[in-house]
Design a protein that fits this description.
Blueprint: H1 2-12, H2 16-20, H3 27-33, H4 48-58, H5 62-69, H6 80-102, H7 110-135
Length: 140
Amino acid sequence: MHALLARELIDACGGLDEAVGACRLQKSRLSECQNPDRPPDQPAYLPADVIADLEAYCGKPLYSRVLAEARPSAPDGKSIVEEISDATEDMAELQRLVRKVRSTGRPMTPRERLVVDAAVLRLREELGDVLAQTESGGEL
């Protein structure tokens, strides 16, 4: 997910060559951070200051917004049943997206992967809401 967010942010800055001029990283390091095919044991993440610089340059909080939305949430007044229902609906949406991509018979494109990753983050947020409700002794 982080590599795809990095790619989207770098693209919003005009590509690698332009993004290099807006942050402290060299082109090779910036390129590593946007490569979704890196081995899982060798991840490359954009440093927070680089994210801030690139978002300021392009004028959009593309990366930090997703990170903020992925934070665990506090109970919002919904019942546990409502939270579980919301999570179930988000899971069904994720399933629909993955089935649609799989039905094409081709590998997932970076854009499709980004859409699926966003759906996973929404589901994670909803599951966090369920957990927050159960931990707080929320009402059914």
